[in-house]
Amino acid sequence: MKAVIEVKELKQDWSPPFQKKTELREIEAEEGQKFESNGNGGNVFRLVQIGKDRVLVEYDITYTNKGHVHPTNRQLWVGKGESESFSALWGSDGVTKTLTLKNLI
């Protein structure tokens, strides 16, 4: 089984000219697969488990789940049609990646 996940990436410059850039990608991932490059040779996410109508995603230590202060667990469930946003903690620009589970195939 595979999960079809939409990844929306928003990059915002922290210095002039303060541009914003949005990219939208759709990927198919299997359990155990890493995806979405962090720009440093690693990946931001790993698909841990596929459930009936949701997926368990693990995210890199260099990102935080928006809306959650100091999570103790770097894994969370994303339901079909639901979205979760993650922000880069360190970097020269602001980066937010939003995952949306589109489908299970």
Description:
The chain is mainly beta. It has no helices and 9 strands. The model has no long low-confidence stretch (mean pLDDT 93).
Question: Key features?
Answer:
four-stranded antiparallel β-sheet; 0% helix; five-stranded antiparallel β-sheet; 105 residues; mainly beta
Q: Percent range for helical residues? A: under 10%
For the biggest β-sheet, the strand order reads 2-1-9-8-6
Q: How far is the N terminus from the C terminus?
A: 6 Å
Question: Major beta sheet, specifics?
Answer: 5 strands, antiparallel
Residue stretches low in confidence (pLDDT < 50, at least 5 long) are none
In total, the number of strands is 9
Query: What proportion strand?
Result: over 45%
What is the fold's blueprint, element by element?
Elements: E1 3-13, E2 20-29, E3 34-37, E4 43-50, E5 54-59, E6 63-65, E7 75-79, E8 83-88, E9 93-104
Antiparallel strand pairs: 1-2, 1-9, 3-4, 4-5, 5-7, 6-8, 8-9
Short description:
The protein is built from no helices and 9 strands. It has strands at 3-13, 20-29, 34-37, 43-50, 54-59, 63-65, 75-79, 83-88, 93-104.
